[in-house]
Design brief:
Elements (H helix, E strand, L loop, with lengths): L16 H8 L14 H21 L2 H10 L9 H12 L2 E5 L5 H9 L2 E5 L16 H8 L6 H22 L4 H24 L2 E4 L2 E4 L2 H4 L2 H9 L4 E4 L2 H6 L10 E5 L2 H17 L14 H13 L1
Parallel strand pairs: 1-2, 3-6, 5-6
Antiparallel strand pairs: 3-4
Helix pairs in contact: 2-10, 5-7, 7-8, 7-12, 7-13
């Protein structure tokens, strides 16, 4: 890619000319221009990683801790995705795939189905480590990807990704356009809520203790401890009907979290979610957050038209 006006600006979240240019040119899948990372970018990674290590040992589930070790991440430097994939792919077939920004919902699901994880390459400003206006490479690589080294979790992601094709297949059979959009909006809310309360903010039993496996927790210094220790957080055994009807807000610590027994349990829940979709039980979930964007709807409708 040419035309990056100020490479000295680096790859800082919301201030990366390389990303701005890619988006202007309509390039979603990109390469990682590692030479553009500045020392300030590497310092942000170093500080983020250093302060999380004790929290991970105390609150993270053992599959995540094993994954961190298996990826051989450098605590001092932003990781190269090719190095991450060199360790990750032989374990589960997954790979991190660089993207320039938000991935429309169907494409995101389809990546998971194909054992690819859309990965942001920018990193937050070192001056505002706790403020994250959007995902960054620390959230994606240090929060999500260690879980992708676990075969049972990886298989769960693949099965979850396949749910998008089921949704597209179902709405393709609906002749009325307004009804297609209504049902698809409801289904997308259900899928987004499931992803949020499991993959992003899930808790799992580890003997008599609770541990975090959700990446939103595992990449947050403050919320990881809060999720496990705070008396104000409601923690319940996961129930699918609760999860798909529970709205969430992204701009504060989560007041309600759900607990799974194992990744085999989570895999079974995804299967149940897909079966409920086929039965029409996701067609009328409760209103409220998250909002479903026009781009996300369009990505599913285009997929439906291909069925």
């Amino acid at each position: 890619m040419t035309g990056v006006s100020n490479p000295a600006a680096g790859l800082t979240t919301t201030r990366a000319p390389f990303i701005e240019l890619a988006q202007q040119q309509g390039q979603l899948y990109i390469h990682q221009p590692y030479e553009l990372y500045t020392e300030a970018n590497h310092e942000a990674w170093r500080r983020l990683f250093a302060r999380m290590e004790d929290r991970w040992r105390r609150y993270a589930n053992p599959h995540f801790l094993k994954g961190i070790d298996n990826l051989c991440l450098d605590p001092a430097r932003v990781p190269r995705l090719e190095d991450v994939n060199r360790f990750l792919s032989p374990l589960t077939g997954f790979s991190a795939k660089a993207v320039s920004g938000y991935v429309p919902a169907f494409l995101f699901f389809d990546c998971l189905r194909n054992r690819e994880f859309p990965t942001t390459i920018t990193i937050r400003d070192a001056a505002t480590l706790d403020y994250l206006p959007e995902p960054d490479i620390f959230h994606d690589i240090a929060g999500h990807v260690p879980m992708h080294t676990d075969p049972a979790f990886a298989n769960t992601l693949v099965r979850f990704g396949a749910c998008a094709h089921t949704a597209a297949e179902l709405v393709a059979a609906i002749p009325d356009e307004a009804e297609r959009i209504r049902r698809l909006t409801s289904i997308q809310k259900a899928l987004a809520r499931f992803f949020w309360f499991t993959i992003e903010f899930g808790l799992m039993r580890d003997g008599s203790q609770l541990k975090a496996y959700g990446s939103g927790l595992l990449s947050s210094y403050g919320e990881l401890q809060h999720a496990i220790d705070s008396p104000v957080v409601q923690r319940y055994p996961v129930q699918l009907e609760w999860v798909i009807n529970q709205y969430f807000e992204i701009d504060h610590y989560q007041p309600l979290l759900f607990i799974v027994d194992s990744f085999d349990h989570l895999f079974e829940l995804v299967g149940e979610l897909e079966e409920w979709m086929r039965q029409g039980r996701l067609d009328n979930v409760s209103p409220g957050e998250p909002a479903v964007s026009a781009g996300d709807l369009r990505s599913f409708l285009e997929a439906a038209d291909r069925h």
